[in-house]
Specification:
By secondary structure, the chain is an alpha/beta fold. It folds into two domains: 131 residues, 3-Layer(aba) Sandwich (Rossmann fold), CATH 3.40.50; 154 residues, Dihydrodipicolinate Reductase, domain 2, CATH 3.30.360. The chain has nine helices and 15 strands. The protein has a nine-stranded mixed beta sheet with strand order 14-13-12-11-7-10-9-8-15. Helix 4 runs parallel beside helix 5, helix 5 packs antiparallel against helix 9 and helix 7 crosses helix 9. The chain is globular and about 75 Å long.
Length: 329
């Protein structure tokens, strides 16, 4: 029997990104559910009537609502996607849990405040509701392959991770924070630096020290339209670079130098292409379905979303306080 899904928020990530002719794969929650045979979209909620009408045309089998509370009341949902503005996530999640859903797929960042995010994680844990946060790269085959290479020791012990992103530390930068933590492990402390600290979502760069002793560097180029998302992982035996916004990876290993006696240099290695790429959001929905069926844990949990937010907040706090070192609890 198929699971029943509902979506709150039918803007870009909820549905409209799939209208972009430049995007060649599924980029929205609606699109991901439609591409997943194990689930049916039965309802969607959105206060904006134009967006709601577009959803109704795209999903004629689903009932449209302007009030998500009515949607929860009328439908016994198994999965709820929360794609509304960040400052609404806490309230919507709280009411959704009371509606006895099995899983919640929440957009990032998980919340506007750390305390709200912690309560969201605790509420779901207490009610045994699966909580996933959409840091999409956790389900991306290219990034998962890099994680496997690191775990298999193909580049030795990690010494540094350098990440570059466009702008907006909460909307875009937490994607990078999550990946640095995905590859490097838990973070001990951070130091942040930023130029537009009065903005709601400033561009922040910073230094992260991982608990394993590796160093992380987060750099912001300050212009969202100049799309950059790159990661460079250096280990004791090699290096992996993720370039072209995640669509290409490069593997290097230290080998005997042809130029300097007694030294080793990084030399490019062949890296097999992954199998046919599946849209990460589709993989995320399939992961959620499997978690429901087998009582598992999603690739990006509520706790992962909480950590990404806490690190971003700490970077902002440091930048606003003369680059003070902030410890991550």
């Amino acid at each position: 029997m198929k699971l029943k899904a509902g979506i709150m928020g039918l803007g870009n990530i909820g549905s409209l990104f799939d209208e972009d002719p430049g995007r060649k794969e599924v980029w929205s929650h609606v699109g991901a559910y439609l591409a997943s045979p194990g689930v049916d979209i039965v309802a969607g909620a959105e206060p904006d009537i134009t967006r709601l009408n577009k959803f109704a045309q795209r999903c004629p089998q689903a009932k449209p609502y302007q009030d998500y509370g009515e949607m929860l009341k009328d439908n016994r949902l198994d999965i709820m996607s929360i794609c509304s503005p960040t400052d609404t996530h806490f309230e919507i999640l709280s009411r959704t849990v009371e509606a006895e859903v099995k899983a919640i797929f929440c957009e990032k960042p998980i919340a506007s405040r750390g305390e709200d995010a912690r309560q969201m994680v605790d509420i779901c844990q207490a009610k045994k509701v699966i909580l996933a946060v959409n840091y999409t790269r956790r389900w991306d085959q290219n990034y998962r392959r890099v994680k496997e290479y690191i775990d298999q020791g193909k580049i030795g012990e990690i010494r540094s991770i350098i990440g570059n992103y466009s702008d907006k530390v909460f909307m875009m930068g937490t994607h990078l924070v999550d990946m640095l933590r995905f590859f490097g492990g838990e973070v001990d402390w951070v130091i942040g630096e930023g130029q537009n600290l009065d903005a709601d979502d400033p561009g922040i760069s910073g230094l992260l020290l991982f608990k394993n002793g590796a160093k992380g560097f987060l750099t912001c180029n300050g212009k969202r339209e100049n799309l950059v998302f790159e990661i460079d992982v250096l280990g004791t035996e090699g290096r992996i670079r993720i370039v072209e916004n995640g669509y290409r990876t490069e593997l290097f290993r230290f080998e005997e130098s042809n130029r300097y006696s007694g030294y080793q240099e990084l030399k490019r290695q062949p890296m097999p292409k992954p199998k046919k790429r599946k849209a990460p959001l589709v993989s995320a929905v399939e992961d959620l379905i499997e978690c429901i069926e087998k009582s598992g844990e999603p690739a990006c949990t509520g706790k992962d979303g909480l950590k990404a937010l806490e690190i971003a907040v700490a970077l902002c706090t440091s930048a606003s306080n003369n680059n003070e070192k902030i410890r991550i609890v």
